[in-house]
TrEMBL record:
GO terms for molecular function: ATP binding; ATP hydrolysis activity; transmembrane transporter activity. Residues 47-249 form the ABC transporter domain. This is Heme ABC exporter ATP-binding protein CcmA. The keyword Membrane applies. Transmembrane segments: none annotated. It comes from Sphingomonas changnyeongensis. The keyword Membrane applies. One of its GO terms (biological process) is cytochrome complex assembly. Residues 1-12 have a biased composition (Basic residues).
């Protein structure tokens, strides 16, 4: 996952199609700017996707997706396999260039996906500690391990972790990162009920502190004040656009 963790950068690219108009704004929630000021968290946190289109493998996956998230807000992204949820997160993280539209990130970004990026031969605490030191967050290692119930696994080599334990380690990195923007790709994959409860608590704390969360998930995930965005209509719009362009040829 080392390649998936990036300092915030702002990318702007003109939308190539003014027809891409539908927008989605999550409802405001009680975790807002006032709370961020109270917690003394990040100075500015926002993620704005404007008329985003994504193309992969020569195929337009979705188009016309707009989203504006501020401090304390969260959204769940749903949609059938292959609609482009993971791709959307990669575009939002700045790892994949949008085909159309713009992405503006205000704040550092942590993408927690299937990648692990922890030294497999190190004990978990040392492997996570490597990143914690890089981020100047060594003192937060123990709380991050505790947040995902990993204390007992601290001395266990990463290669010996189970699927769910590895997923918890990935999520612990998000907690440890101090990045206000969390992009979580199928965060509940492999987690048992207790671990999901811990994840939900960690997410609630993050929002309370003025962070924001985008979670692509097929599973229920309780996120305070979160709306749900179904990617299907945006994938349908992409299909319709592709068909119209084919007809024009
Ligand atoms: N590196 C890549 N190169 C080309 N095409 C890709 C690449 N990665 C993904 N795709 C394609 O993009 C489409 C969307 O994939 P993506 O993983 O974003 O969907 P998803 O909605 O997250 O799916 P799932 O629910 O199965 O996780 C798929 O058809 C996939 O084959």
């Amino acid at each position: 996952m080392g390649g998936n963790w990036r300092r915030a950068r702002t990318s702007r690219r003109p939308c190539d199609d003014p027809r891409d108009r539908p927008s989605f704004r999550p409802v405001g929630c009680r975790h807002g700017r006032a709370r961020r000021r109270r917690t003394g968290g990040w100075s500015l946190t926002a993620l704005t996707l404007d008329r985003l289109a994504c193309r992969r493998g020569g195929r337009l996956l979705f188009t016309g997706l707009s989203l504006d998230l501020r401090a304390g807000q969260a959204i769940r992204i749903t949609g059938a396999n292959g609609t482009g949820k993971s791709s959307l997160l990669r575009v939002a993280a700045g790892l994949l260039a949008p085909f159309g539209g713009t992405v503006v990130r205000e704040g550092r970004t942590a993408l927690a996906d299937e990648g692990l990026a922890l030294d497999r031969d190190l004990p978990l605490a040392d492997a996570l500690g490597f990143w914690a030191r890089l981020d100047g967050r060594a003192s937060r290692l123990a709380p991050a391990l505790a947040a995902l119930g990993l204390e007992a696994l601290a001395p266990v080599p990463v290669r010996m972790l189970s699927t769910g334990q590895r997923k918890r380690a990935v999520l612990a990195r998000a907690v440890l990162s101090a990045a206000p923007i969390w992009l979580l790709d199928e965060p509940t994959n492999g987690l048992d009920a207790d671990a999901i409860a811990l994840l939900e608590r960690a997410c609630a704390s993050h929002l309370e502190a003025g962070g924001l969360i985008v979670a692509a998930t097929h599973q229920p995930l309780a996120l305070p004040g979160a709306a749900t965005l179904d990617l299907t209509p945006f994938a349908d719009a992409a299909r319709a656009r592709t068909m119209a362009e084919d007809d024009d040829d």
